[in-house]
Design brief:
The protein is an alpha/beta fold and about 325 residues long. It folds into two domains: about 250 residues, TIM Barrel, CATH 3.20.20.30; about 70 residues, no CATH class. The chain is about 45% helix and about 15% strand. The two termini are about 20 Å apart.
């Protein structure tokens, strides 16, 4: 296994409970924790601040915020503030969001590559403590800087990671970002395409793959009872089959299954998900998650690493989060 491993948290656990998991992960040698912000349920910034304030070494990342609902200057100020709380431990993960959620809250996601380029470019300049005037199609800044009066005025080391799934966004990440957050619920074979597109972007920027970080979200449903582990993962897989089919298509999930799931599920999914779960076979669950016994989970994660990922970001689905942390621990407690 890699000597790098990270934890991924969404909204399943009480926030105070999540803080304890992050502290335990730090004790067991985990490199980072990434806090999700996807559905309209839990903002990433508040948990990130809580984790940063209650740990000493572990890095804290957004996994990921979107580039549409926060002004670029506000993003920069937010991450400057987090860096004040945990200097050199903050990671800015940013993605292009997804529909239908974006459209349901009034966001029209058009020209997503240009929008991402403008936001990443200006946020980086602001965090470098530059005086910025920028007038693009999506970002408009006039004579703006991070106006630090009390505290550190030096450039902040906040690496920017683009959460990317599609080939064009992967290529953009290679060109302009410090790293990419590779998506979950994709198969290891998906990474072959991802690495090709990332390297195309890196070549454009005159950089090499060795200097570009590629952590990958991996759903991890770990249990000594193998069938229980698979069943725990099946619900999330079914939800994403219905809500984010673009991710599923990237992994080669048959279109017939996607169509069948979408006939059953509405958005947001409620009780229909139980019926839809019956349509999802074990082989699809195993193709796109690390599910099963600890040995099986470690072996699956290794497949992602062998396919180009640099650090697994483990999303624990089982009830015993500490058991998953222990199974991937880098240091003994």
């Amino acid at each position: 296994m890699s000597d790098r491993v990270a934890l991924y948290l969404q909204d399943k656990h009480d926030l105070r409970e999540s803080i304890k998991y992050v502290q335990y992960a730090e004790q067991r040698g985990f490199e980072a924790v990434w806090q999700a912000e996807s559905r309209l349920v839990r903002d990433a910034i508040v948990p990130m601040a809580a984790y940063a304030a209650t740990t000493e070494r572990i890095k804290v990342g957004s996994g990921v915020i979107n580039n549409w609902t926060r002004n670029a200057a506000v993003i920069a100020a937010t991450f400057l503030t987090l860096d004040d709380l945990a200097p050199n431990r903050i990671l800015l993960g940013i993605g292009a969001w997804w529909d239908p959620l974006a459209s349901k809250v009034g966001i029209r996601r058009h020209k997503p590559l240009l929008a991402m380029r403008e936001v990443v470019t200006t946020v980086r300049r602001l965090l470098n403590m530059e005086h910025v005037t920028f007038h693009g199609e999506f970002v408009h800044l006039t004579d703006v800087e991070l106006d630090v009066v009390h505290g550190r005025r030096e450039p902040r080391h906040v690496p920017i990671y683009i959460g990317a799934t599609g080939p064009k966004m992967l290529e953009l990440a290679g060109e302009i970002a410090d790293g990419v957050v590779l998506n979950y619920l994709v198969s290891p074979t998906y990474n072959e395409m991802a690495m090709e597109r990332i390297q195309a972007g890196l070549r454009r920027a005159g950089r090499s793959l060795d200097e570009f970080d590629r952590p990958q979200l991996v759903v991890c449903s770990l249990d000594q009872d193998r069938q229980r582990a698979l069943d725990n993962a099946r619900k999330l897989v079914t939800q994403y089959l219905g809500q984010q089919p673009h991710i599923m298509k990237a992994s080669g999930v048959p279109q017939e299954l996607l169509d069948e799931i979408n006939r059953v599920l509405t958005w947001p999914a409620t009780e229909e998900i139980e019926r839809a779960m019956e349509l999802v076979p074990d082989d699809v669950v195993q193709m796109i998650t690390a599910s099963g016994t600890p040995e099986e989970c470690r072996a699956k994660v290794q497949e992602y690493m062998a396919a180009g990922a640099t650090c697994p970001i483990l999303y624990p689905l089982g009830d015993d989060v500490r058991a998953m942390i222990d199974a991937f621990a880098v240091e003994k407690a």
